[in-house]
Design goal:
- It comes from Halorussus aquaticus.
- Pfam families: DUF5658.
- InterPro entries: DUF5658.
- The chain has 124 residues and is mainly alpha-helical.
- Helices cover 71% and strands 0% of the residues.
- The protein has helices spanning 18-24, 28-54, 61-70, 73-92, 100-123.
- Helix 2 (28-54) packs parallel to helix 5 (100-123) and helix 3 crosses helix 4 (73-92).
- The longest helix has 27 residues, at 28-54.
Length: 124
């Protein structure tokens, strides 16, 4: 075996890097949806944390058990796990269905932020 790239072409590829190439192939709409996922994720984490500090409780039983057992950092881990699963599933989908994964993450998390903010308005 030599190191000329014949046996390991993905490791010695010239030109665009793998990550850059993957992002370049994503449509503008999908990139905006992934940005919305990031914003919704942070918003959900912040509003959940603030709600817990106000004395509210987490309604998701899995997240509630994780928070009670491991603390709030478990919530961060659950969110990152969900994004990781979403990214893995996105690679398996054809491009025409590519918007489903970020939309499937962004919509419920955005809804959770709105519900949390509504609860704050009712409590205060």
């Amino acid at each position: 075996m030599s190191s000329d790239g014949r046996y390991w072409p993905t490791l010695t590829r010239t030109g665009r890097r793998r990550v850059t190439a993957a992002v370049a192939d994503v449509s503008r709409t999908e990139r905006l949806l992934w940005l919305l996922v990031a914003v919704a994720l942070v918003g959900d984490l912040l509003t959940t944390y603030y709600g817990l500090q106000m004395g509210l409780s987490e309604s998701n039983p899995v997240a509630r058990a994780a928070i009670e057992t491991f603390g709030f950092s478990a919530m961060v881990g659950l969110k990152l796990f969900a994004v990781g699963v979403g990214l893995g599933c996105r690679r398996l989908l054809p491009d025409r269905h590519g918007l489903l994964v970020p939309a499937g993450l962004a919509v419920p998390w955005t809804g959770a932020v709105l519900v949390n903010l509504t609860l704050y308005a009712m409590v205060v």
